[in-house]
Design brief:
The protein has 240 residues and is an alpha+beta fold. 35% of the residues lie in helices and 20% in strands.
Length: 240
Amino acid sequence: MSKNIRGIIYKINNSNSFDKVITLIDNEGSRVSILAKGVRKPNSKKAFSIELLNYVRCLLLDNYNVPLLTEIALIDEFRYLKGDYKSIVISQFICEIINNFTFENHDNELFKLLLNLLKSLKANNILILSSFLLKLIKITGNLPDLSVYLDTEEKIVNGEAYTIDTSIGYYSRKIDNGFNKLDVNIFKLQKYFLDNDFKSILKIKEDRELSKKILLLHIKWIENIIDKRLKSREILLNTL
């Protein structure tokens, strides 16, 4: 049985000397693994389209344990993400994030968020990445109400709050040495991220130090959700 799908590739593994298994998130938000036979051969016509974060259209034979790729066409390769070392590091980071949040069946909000990110990620990388992580935490149901304290459920006053590495959200007081005072500008940026799209976020005048602080905070929140440290975290933070 033939099947047409569209999706964004976020994982590629060699299967043997000639084949690859590609994993993508399709436009329904589901994880799909596909066997691409012969694409490691020098004369393969499919190989050009099989790269990380390529948006592709695939024709599959679906009556196998792993669907078999028969045709693949490139919709968008987002070339600006493959031009230099910094872009490649960002791409690897995005792929690792998506790999931790895709499942066999998922709401298509995740696919739409990723596609919008890839269309927007041409400048202001740190702020866009930070907003992407926060929006992802929200659409996956892991974001508490950031306008109230976790410990008292009272409204946060003027951004006066504390964070802790092992929790997502804010506290009204410093309970022990593991708590850090929240920068009020981070609080304001988060509200803006949640209320606006990537195009609007690109218009923000960037403070590099503040941008790296909020990115690190959101990375820690992601790591709390997946319960492990991201492999690409250090190289990303050292590159930006």
